[in-house]
Write a structure and sequence with these properties.
homodimer, mainly beta, Jelly Rolls
């Protein structure tokens, strides 16, 4: 793989859930995903074997793990080990979040490439 | 490893180079590092086997690869495959950058823990 440089907020977006879109950058063993939550959008509870890290850039994103809602403001960051069930919601202002997955979410790569 | 939630810009910082500090969050297979460049700071040319991804949050960070300077503004993101030599510099306003490494930089983990 060659080095890549891209304007992440100009990458073609794909839908992650109703009112939640992602703009991805795929490396070999990890990926970035710039997530935009429309106001009051929700990501239903799910899990994946991939480790997920991230940081809130704008607004508020809540991550719900084990029934506890962690309401995260800008510069609040997280690690969700693979296999941990989680859901997410934002507030009335929406949110902008940078997610990181390792390894690459092949399901995202396939969907993103299929929509091109 | 348990889920982690932390205010990344309040994490204890460690020095990466003169005028360049990092605030890390360590997962199992990847890590975040919030990098602050003081005005006109430079990271000398180096390489590491870890894949590096990142995004500029504030200011301008230039990454120099193969003699080409990629001057990156907010929301510009990158992937540097493992083993690719690179250096970095910022402008007179400094910069704030989020770096991601996979696997975890054990050298950073050891230094960060040693300074506690």
């Amino acid at each position: 793989m060659e080095p890549q440089f891209t304007r992440l907020d100009a990458v073609r977006a794909f839908e992650l859930a109703a009112g939640v879109s992602g703009q991805p950058l795929f490396g070999e063993n990890a990926m970035l995903n710039l997530i935009r939550f429309q106001p009051d959008a929700v990501v239903p509870r799910h899990s994946h074997p991939h480790e997920q890290l991230g940081i809130v850039l704008e607004g508020m994103q809540a991550l719900v793990v084990d029934g506890v809602a962690h309401e995260l403001e800008p510069f609040e960051a997280y690690v969700l080990p693979g296999g941990v069930e989680h859901s997410a919601y934002c507030g009335p202002e929406g949110a902008l979040v940078l997610d990181v997955f390792t390894p690459v979410r092949e399901d995202y790569l396939e969907r993103w490439q299929a929509e091109s």
